[in-house]
Amino acid sequence: MNRMIIDVQDGQVCIAITKENKLDHFFIERATGSEHYGNIYIGRVEQIKPGIQAAFVNIGEGKNGLLHQKDIHPNDENLPIEKCVKKGQELIVQVKKEAIGDKGPRLTTKCSLSGHFLVLLPMEKKVYISKKIRNTDEKNRLMKIAKNLKGQDYGLIVRTEAEGAEEENIKRELDYLLSKWKKVNPIEIAPKLLLRDSSIVGRMIRDYYNEEIDDIIVNGREILEELERYFSIYFLESVEKIKYIEQPYLLNYCGLEDQVNELFDRKVWLESGGYIVIDYTEACTVIDVNSGRFTGHNNMEETFLKINLEATEAIANQIRLRNIGGIIIIDYINIKKMEEQKTVVDYLEKCLEKDKLKTKIYGFTELCILQMTRKQQGKRLNRIQTEECKICVGTGYLPKQEVLFYKAMSIMERNKNLLKQNTLFLKVNPYLKELIVEKREKNEHNVVQMIEEYYKVKVQIEVSPFMEFGEIIIF
User: Fold this and answer.
1) Per-state percent for the chain, helix, strand, coil, to nearest 5
2) Rounded to an integer, what distance in angstroms lies between the CA atom of residue 7 and that of residue 248?
3) pLDDT (tens digit, 9 = 90+) per residue, 168-214?
4) Which end of the chain has a smaller Cβ tally under 10 Å, C or N?
């Protein structure tokens, strides 16, 4: 059975799409979050940076958004940024990429409005058909419908979901999208939100619902009503698929808790006993494939190829489920032969077919590292669910106790007066004190014990919340 499970908790919506009880897609949104993707604003240009061919635009959402020269429409002559916009100018912009870390959201003036069958392109005049529609007759039918319905002042993209749709339903959606665009009022004073994108439920139904889904289970009354309204317009014959269950923590109730928790693990085990490791950096995501407990039964090359292919399917799933975007680098096991590299690339392309977001595989480097990219849409799952560690500042590493001891030695040797004392005070960060105390209770080596044994003194710990984790003061 294939299901869409919508779990509503206080201020949070989780959506899981399963196929044969296995997690196939997962999304989460919080009322306290800062989700801006798809929103349309009237913004004000604050700064122009010719060196990077971009402008910083205030949209009223914290950090200024970044508008690149190539995202300005119209600009058929490919003019530089300083010729396209001026400081203080007001622009209608749409968020095309969420803010990440210290970077503000990425903006575009090429606005678009997505529906179930169509994407309205208010700034263009052409009609495009989804490349995933392979049937030539169906493509021609949809192109004819779109050209008949399209006005002179806008363009359209016919989405994959339009395959087989009736002209009447496509027209009804076009009228709805045009009415939404009319609400975008450019006379408002910047910065201001002009149009908010659909709710997470609306977006997920719009982008991921199809006839293969047998049930839609929900535990929130408001979302139940939203679903019923949507289905009454698009899928009236399938309204009975929507089922309300008055049950908190619906993901747990449906037995998906373990599968969801695995999405936050650094290490993902494969059925064969191998595993992959996923690490995030500022510039890219790095995935490492390891043989683990799997040793195989035949020759080494067959063993490695089997693990690499199994890892490839797992990697495609994790990229999709965790919403990993941007540059992705994959280090496979001992994959130097051209035919093996081609086998892996072909299989990866096949595994990525179910991904709605655009991916591109660039192939293997001279060091046999696979490079690929995936469109960044919304926030990566771990950015929604986790925050940077205040102790390690996101590195994942802490200084060893020996390192702290050598810091203490340096301080002691520079201040000979400290060597004459019977008792010393060690001032540290509160988290470091907790770590030292924990190690002392476990009879593990710690910096206090090392100082006491080396200098034959008694050490007492004091704390200061204003100190960095690895910083120490001795007095």
Assistant:
1) 35, 25, 40
2) 8
3) 889 989 998 999 899 887 788 889 999 988 888 888 888 888 888 99
4) N
Q: Which two tokens stand for residue 428?
A: 């540290």
d(CA 270, CA 225): 40
Please give the order of strands across the beta sheet that includes 326-331: 267-269, 275-280, 284-290, 326-331, 369-374, 359-364
Local structure of 423: helix, strand or coil = strand
CA dist list (Å): 50 to 27, 84, 118, 195, 274: 38, 11, 36, 30, 49
**Coil vs helix vs strand at 119:** strand
> What is the distance of C-alpha 26 from the center of its chain?
11
CB atoms within 10 A of CB 182: 8
Residue 33 confidence (pLDDT) above 60: no
Parse the chain into domains and list their residue ranges: 1-31+211-264, 40-111+186-193, 265-385, 401-474
End-to-end CA distance of the chain: 68
Provide, rounded to the nearest whole percent, the portion of the chain with pLDDT above 90: 53
- Looking at residue 117, its pLDDT comes to 92
Phi and psi of 417, rounded to 5°?
-65, -30
Structure token pair of residue 367:
């060091």
Tokens found for residue 366: 């001279």
What is the rounded CA–CA span in Å between residue 113 and residue 106?
17
Fold of 1-31+211-264: Nucleotidyltransferase; domain 5 (3.30.420)
Q: Where are the alpha helices (DSSP H) in 322-429?
A: 338-351, 381-385, 401-414
